[in-house]
Task: inverse folding
């Protein structure tokens, strides 16, 4: 895993717009979880943070010119918030005007892109930014500007009925504030004050979409790129609502909400050639209910390298800190990339790699969490796998609020880290102190096991983790290792040939750990692009040998899958174990 550390933590790159834009995106990544939690307008689909992170991801690429980034932003934009943000940022990348004029033009283009602009949204923040920009920016004025924008965001609670009922600010408006806070501070070489921003909006952590009275939405959020003539407003309004349109030459990026995705696709196809089209089921998204939170609780953090999906992490109240998956010219936080896209590309031979988030991005995560919770326990992926533990340790020792974060080098990754993080999050609900929870996690780590079964070795060779010759002969002989992530690295525990041999090995280990004497515990069966096979062929056998255990199915972490490849599957287990000071919770 390489380090993607091209962002400043001080003012050393003041005045560089691309660096400032990357800082804005990094701040958005750190706040995305909260933005999703409070997203109730225009519908409570909980995707504002995700859409901003995915839409603005091209800003991370330092190797291409402004025009290429602007084109990628058009193609990557998703959702209301992502499309509006991309309209604004694309104007900044024009290259023919200073930052102030770019902000004015960007605010204009963002408003023009929305068919029916609404008050108290991201547009309101951009309008206020443009007002200030018309008189010119100066470094000493930026603090006042950001304070004004923060006040405007605070006032969005009263702008829409759904926001008033939920008593939250507009998630898109807050997302734009977070982006601008990072961008402007880095551009003007100002000191970082993200803690103050998080403190101002600290109460938002208490909100969960399940507590809001919001109308259910049936339909789909559709994003399409169409090549052709400019589509008329009337034609788009017949297809759906919440219309946002961007364009570049003869490419038209269209976002809308439609009751039937196939009908919408057919109608969009009538407007021109569909270059790409994606959609989300609004009803499914609105059914996600994040865990209730209390700022006085101890908050559990872990790395995206754990085999925890975003949905499960939300349900457990866990913050995930992602590394990045680099897939062709796309680079996304690992839990923001669709697994099917990764494995489909790997089978086509697309080059895939992983990279750590910049230190700046990781610092923004830490700062937000410790500003919104009284204390946090960070179960860090094993230091042998990434440098996350060292970065967090250095930040904690130098930051004023660092004492509020308890840091534990888990020595684990993927499923082994996931089952321990899950158990610790459940234990945290009992109100135990951080030291107790850290001891509980250490005990759980001593008991937890994971076994990863590879289909082929060629993907390890592609990533440089074994020789191509060794991979060729291993695959030719149909031999693949069974590996277990341990504190000193991935340990090979067996070398097996047939799928049946792998299932038998998994069942033997499950019976030994969970099945003897009716032991209760938790078992996670992990899949890559083979979920149906794992459910149909592996799960019944595991249930037979560990009938008292709770058994769940979930995706293998993408940082692991990016190296082991499609066809990989795994099991991770945590038996019921005594915790520090008494019996711990059952999995």
Result:
């Amino acid at each position: 895993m390489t380090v993607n550390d091209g962002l400043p933590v001080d003012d050393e790159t003041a005045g560089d717009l691309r660096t400032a834009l990357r800082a804005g995106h990094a701040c958005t990544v750190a706040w995305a979880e909260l933005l999703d939690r409070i997203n109730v307008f225009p519908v409570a689909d909980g995707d504002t943070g995700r859409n901003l992170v995915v839409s603005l991801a091209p800003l991370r690429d330092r190797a291409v010119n402004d025009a290429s980034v602007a084109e990628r932003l058009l193609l990557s934009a998703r959702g209301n918030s992502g499309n509006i943000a991309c309209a604004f940022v694309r104007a900044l990348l024009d290259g023919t005007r200073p930052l102030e004029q770019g902000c004015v033009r960007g605010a204009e283009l963002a408003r023009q892109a929305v068919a029916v602009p609404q008050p108290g949204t991201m547009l309101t923040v951009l309008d206020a930014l443009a007002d200030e920009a018309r008189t010119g920016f100066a470094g000493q004025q930026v603090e006042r500007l950001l304070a004004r924008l923060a006040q405007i965001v605070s006032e969005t609670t009263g702008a829409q009925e759904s926001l008033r009922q939920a008593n939250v600010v507009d998630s898109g408006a807050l997302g734009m504030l977070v982006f601008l806070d990072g961008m402007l501070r880095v551009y003007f070489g100002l000191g970082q004050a993200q803690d103050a921003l998080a403190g101002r909006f600290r109460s938002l952590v208490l909100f969960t979409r399940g507590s809001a009275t919001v109308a259910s939405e049936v339909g789909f959020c559709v994003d399409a790129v169409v090549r052709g003539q400019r589509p008329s407003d009337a034609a788009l309004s017949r297809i759906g609502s919440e219309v946002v349109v961007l364009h570049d030459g003869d490419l038209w990026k269209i976002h809308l909400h439609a009751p039937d995705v196939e009908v919408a696709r057919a109608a969009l196809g009538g407007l021109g050639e569909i270059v790409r089209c994606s959609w989300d089921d609004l009803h499914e998204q609105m059914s996600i209910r994040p865990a209730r939170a209390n700022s006085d609780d101890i908050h559990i953090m872990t790395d995206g390298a754990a085999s925890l999906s975003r949905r499960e992490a939300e349900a457990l109240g866990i913050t995930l800190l992602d590394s990045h998956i680099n897939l062709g010219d796309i680079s996304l936080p690992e839990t923001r990339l669709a697994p099917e896209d990764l494995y489909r590309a790997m089978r086509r031979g697309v080059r895939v790699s992983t990279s750590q988030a910049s230190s700046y991005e990781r610092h923004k995560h830490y700062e937000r969490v410790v500003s919104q919770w009284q204390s946090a326990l960070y179960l860090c992926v094993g230091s042998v796998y990434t440098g996350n533990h060292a970065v967090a340790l250095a930040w904690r020792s130098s930051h004023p609020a660092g004492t509020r974060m308890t840091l534990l080098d888990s020595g684990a990754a993927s499923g082994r880290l996931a089952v321990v993080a899950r158990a610790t999050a459940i234990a945290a609900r009992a109100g135990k102190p951080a030291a107790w929870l850290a001891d509980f996690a250490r005990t759980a780590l001593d008991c937890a096991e994971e076994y990863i079964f590879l289909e082929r070795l060629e993907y390890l060779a592609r990533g440089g983790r074994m020789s191509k010759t060794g991979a060729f002969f291993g695959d030719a002989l149909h031999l693949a290792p069974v590996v277990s992530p341990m504190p000193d690295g991935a340990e090979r525990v067996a070398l097996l040939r047939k799928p049946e041999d792998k299932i038998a090995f998994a069942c033997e280990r499950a019976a030994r750990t969970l099945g003897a004497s009716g032991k209760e515990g938790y078992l996670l069966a992990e899949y890559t692009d083979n979920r149906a096979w794992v459910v149909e062929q592996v799960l019944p056998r595991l249930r037979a040998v560990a009938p008292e255990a709770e058994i769940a199915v979930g995706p293998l972490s993408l940082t692991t899958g990016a190296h082991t490849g499609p066809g990989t599957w795994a099991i991770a287990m945590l038996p019921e174990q005594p915790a520090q000071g008494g019996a711990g919770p059952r999995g």
The domain at 220-286 is CATH 3.30.70 (Alpha-Beta Plaits).
